[in-house]
Amino acid sequence: MPRPPSAGRLAREVLALARARGLTIATAESCTGGLVAAALTSIAGSSDVMDRGFVTYSNAAKTAMLGVPAPLIASVGAVSAEVAAAMAEGALRASGAGLAVSITGVAGPGGGSVEKPVGLVHFAAAARDGRVNRIERRFDAALGRSGIRRAACMQALLMLRDLAQESVVSA
Questions:
Q1: Is the full-model pTM beyond 0.85?
Q2: Distance CA 140, CA 156 (A)
Q3: Is the separation of the CB atoms in 160 and 28 below 8 Å?
């Protein structure tokens, strides 16, 4: 059985696909605190693809930096599919990137609730052409904070890879 890809291998795949299609990338991260941007920028030569990363840990940062409407956060909560999509779309608007990925979740060990337990993470990947893919993951709280954050980083890289694969090559 093949081993799952490492974050480094996946980041290289994302960068190669984006480069081949003439796309740049922006990240909008909450519970991962910049892990996705770090994975991408740890690869030499990533500067031609990686545009910028937003670490929007607080609700105020999500609103100020990405334009996520405060009433949306108030109504559905920061950890939601709607806010994840608004974060990704906001990262596209605030950058010149062709692709963006966002992550918002509860990494723990505290902060969870019955409705939004530790390990709940919402993701969105958006393309400049209007495509937005959303995924909800419920990672096992036993992974701990670091494990949940690493798993979320991998999921975000997978989403970027998939969206880049679906993108039309720029002329």
A1: yes
A2: 17
A3: no
